[in-house]
Write a structure and sequence with these properties.
Length: 411
Amino acid sequence: MKARIRMAAAACGLLLSTSVLSANDPVLEWNAIMISTTAGQNPIVQARFATITQLAVFEAVNAIDQDFDPYLGTVVAPTTASADAAAIAAAHAVLKNYFPADGDALDAARATSLAAIADGLPKQQGLAVGEAAAAAMIALRTDDGSAPPEFYVPASTAAGEWQPTPSCPPAGGVLLQWRNLRPFSIETTDQFRAAPPPALTSKRYARDFWEVRLVGGVDSRFRSQSRADVARFYAAAAPVPVWNAAASQVVVEQGRSTSEKARALALVNVAISDAQATVFETKYHYHFWRPETAIRGGDADGNVLTRADPDFVPFVGTPCFPSYGSAHGASSAAAREVLERMFGARHHFITLTTPTVADVVLQYGSFRQMTRDIDDARVYGGIHFRFDQEAGGKIGRQVGAYVWRHTMRRR
């Protein structure tokens, strides 16, 4: 079943806003603060900051509650410490470290959150635990391969070879260094590398070429309003805010404990970040061209079943890195894998909104509906082939399953 799409003006009274979800809940409140603080980052970079933040929160809370295997195992806490204070201190310290320009706003949010907790020894103990967890996570991720920035310059202009698109800087394809990012859970970024893309001369390639050519152009007559809406929505809504919102709503829906909330958000972000590192290793291993380049150069691909359209312009802007496989597809499949194993696949009520596409509200009853819409969004947006989405989805499922089996397991 496709997601139900409603005009925001008609549905606003039904929405579960972040402020309502996080009221009197420091784990969810500071997850929302994390999302707003990191919102200006590239979505791939945002996932790293989100993961560090949520792991620090989990490690602080779990050091007190001890419900799950620790991520670090180096943070020691008295059982009398306040888990709420620990969560606040951990998130605040991580975010202020990476975003010092937002320090005043973060300090004010910390003071407001802590005001709801009674003064005393448990509060002070919790603050110390949270700050220790944050310091440990920040130290762990120093020199993790996320910097300095590296760029990819194509070796040739041959058919199938990625070429810069209008969004690219002069230096070339961005985030080349992300293929070497030290993972949070998986062993290496090539552990789940995708198999090669279809041959340019294959029927499979021609089939997916024609799909995106017909439905993905800015002036397509074959794209329904619902598919246009999801394309616009997921071009504006990155994996971190989408899947953190979904996880936050489901933990409230199911009445999960503080430690379970902290673990859920940590696992989701670990899965997203490791899937992104894996898919960037795949992207820059194959450096396959984007539909924007492929459709304009369709007469040079050697496939008798394709035909060029030199005037093709995608419905949404093409990101500046190779096409195969889809980063949004991998991120989403990884998050879905973790959430389905944790909360079940169906019978949820998830509402997604984004202020940049305010006329669209998406409602879902399952995580599968979300990933199907995201796959469609990239194809109908004209920036991915269907086989890009399938490759990204397979990477994400493998990463998500690995993260679930090996990280922060219930004791």
